[in-house]
Amino acid sequence: MSLVAMSEMLQQAKGGKYAVGSFNVFNFETLCAVVEAAEETKSPVILSVPERLFRFVDMDTLSAAMVNRAQRSSVPVALHMDHAHSYDGILRAVRWGFTSVMFDGSKLPFEENLKRTKEICSMAHALGISVEGELGYRSKEEMVDVAQLATVDMAAEFVAKTHVDALAIAFRNREGGQINTDKLEELAQAVNIPLVMHSGGKLPSYKEVIAHGISKVNVPTDMSTTAIATLKAECGHDPIPNYINLMAAVKKAVKGSAKEYMIKFDCVAKA
Hints:
This protein is α/β, with parallel strands linked by helices.
């Protein structure tokens, strides 16, 4: 199947009423674990790296491995630059061969976010690369309702003028972070493109959000927390562990976690 455009993948998910998981990977173990999980479940998958990862990882090396593994995959794989805040980050992803970029202008004034996202869409689309935009945001302290940050009309204008392929937008209520399905349904009808759920690794069930327009769910931290929990457990069992055994244990655990999400997203056997 090799590398595919994220827009194509998400349009199929939108029509099929399932979601595709976008998993942050940060080394060879997590990269191979997620792709193998997708292959074994026959699920389409998105491999993501956020721009902030640049500070910690040799991305020239990791990106080459991502492209190589995706090209050898038996299922569709999109490579996605997540939460890019700079043109430089997006241009680097383009040079690496990624098939999708996300410009995160959610904390910019609406007009500035629209302007910069539109410029990125013009450049990326000319190269066959998909673009995800964002309106609204979730603070670390509380969930923020999109109604406080962006109206449905603003979302419709943003999509119409930027031509983004997918839109991440806040749709949870402030109180308890509950899903606002009415708002989500309004958004889905207003923009008519795949919607994205960020920080999506927390719900017991995803059927409701998928039914109301979510076609992509970001799993940004669970690969990391699974790896950490596995390392702690393994080191607890063996005070002088073998590092190769630790890597194998981490890969196995991350693969299992990714598979669980793919089942929850109902994308199994959709490749």
